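TA notes. Do not distribute before section.
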Amino acid sequence: MNAERRTQIASLLASDVLWSAYALADLQPEMAPYCRWFVHENGSRRGVALLYSGLTPPVLFLHGDPAALEAAIDGATLPKTVSLSIQEAHEPVIARRYRWVERRPMWRMALREAPFAVDAQKCRGGGGEDISGPSSQPFPVETGLRLRRLTAEDAAQVERLFACGGPFTPDAFAPRQMEAGVFYGLEDAVGELVAVGGTHIVDYGARIAAIGNMYTRPDARRRGAGGSILRAVVKTLQAGGVETIVLNVDQRNDAARRLYEQFGFAVHCPFIEGMATILG
């Protein structure tokens, strides 16, 4: 992608940075092999669609005026199955091409204020350091769990943990997210992960990050694991200069929403995600 087109897309997405945070981060050069962009501008009617192939199935994201989006993707060859990330106003555009297989009402949340200070000296670096400490670790000490920063070498453990399943298990994890992202885990005395959380994408240049992959094994829930991990991820991102931090939560998941609100996140907008298959 040349610089002019990148600037054009970034300008269009900037009309709602919090909704477009993932797409803005996908403008990083290293993400180019996974991205197909569709753009239409006609006066005040402007739209951007992104087909991201870095996950299976590919993700189709829409932003902007529905009529402009209709024109942007008109005639485009799209996959038979996609994971949609759209706002309600975009449903008519999708309905002409896809039918829902699974439709999940979601909240996009964004960090408005963090109820804890960032210790930049302690968070600096990319090693496996434990940044929690007694004052910021809400998980009871007697459990014997240890919080540590994860690396790409821990990807198999993360996948095994997700295999425990249950409602709201992350479904958009890819091991490469751990290479450039920020991940933390709580492990037991034998080194097995019982909880994990991290980022879907980080762009330190644009100072944007999206938190995701938050999961606690069913038998370890309701004891502060999610709070410990969320605190560590946010502190590390902020220490790296990230200013815009977003996340997604299923509208049925009241417990997760309450947790995020306790840590300074607020709802930015509703949206819809889920699997869809092409018509015909």
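Switch to the second chain here.
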Amino acid sequence: MISFITEKITSWERLKAEKRPIFIYGMGDGALKIMTVFRQMNIKVAGIFASDEFVRGHSFEGFLVHKLSEVEEMAEDFVVVLAFAAGYQEIVDKIHDIASKHTLYVPDVPVAGTGLFTYDFCVQNQEKIRQVYDSLADDYSRKVYANIINFKISGKIEYLSSVTTPKEEIYHSIIKPHISETYVDLGAYNGDTVRELLEFTNGRYSSIYALEPDKKNFKKLSKFTDSMPNVYPINAAAWCIDTSLPFAAKAGRQSAISAFSENFVEARSVDSVLQGKPATIIKMDVEGFEREAIWGAAQTISHYAPKLMIALYHRNEDIFELPLLIKALNERYKLYLRHQLYIPAWETNLYAVI
């Protein structure tokens, strides 16, 4: 087996073997997903707690929601399972503080797709994983790759904290944006990643194409870009061809293509949008459909080799399938992996440059 994968026992297995009470920290979709796996594996939940500001005497899934201090009074020694995503330093610091006092796990549940990320899953895909590892452009990318895989198996947050890179460093050292970029933003949300790029180009660019399928998000995106020249907001999902797709609109960033929705949204391929014109940067964060978006940009990637920023954390297989696909489309690319501040392993991205 691959030597850099040192974790073989999943967080789920460790939790199943626990004799101490297990408390879930957090509510919402993440907690529901974790509790579903708990039921399948017969892992008992002792209770739920939330940050003090969210505790108002209400219940979640039949459990009264406690404060951490209340749980500490109830149980002398217990295990914490984090059930929400944290991307701000203050919250991340709070999680690390809890982990310094109590055993804490962050079980990996895929944002999209099915199945769990386990050691056996890595064994089944070891050739692809090794191929990606060997193709990465620097030692730090290889360290990130190893740590992310070990985190996803074990749920131990120290694997993330030791490979967290500030966004500014990534832009300055890898992407190196200039003042005449043609930027394609797939999953443009409310314009936050357009704004992010402009921070590093002093507001200058050649043109911007921003695709966002959610109507509410698109309205905010359009308002933000309304007075900007050569910016083309498009109310569509990124896909491999031009078509229409069932789409579930949810709050914030979580809207996504869904086979269970009766609502449809227009879908566009990057190659169709650009109509043969070059792009210099393409960013993809499309809630688990990055592979389809990449195929939709295949001609652009093959012919023009734009710098790529691709989310690598939505599906279990993304961590090896997406880098291998990029290399297959254009073998000249140098591949880098970086993880920005986030628990769990969200904001783990692939960066491809010539």
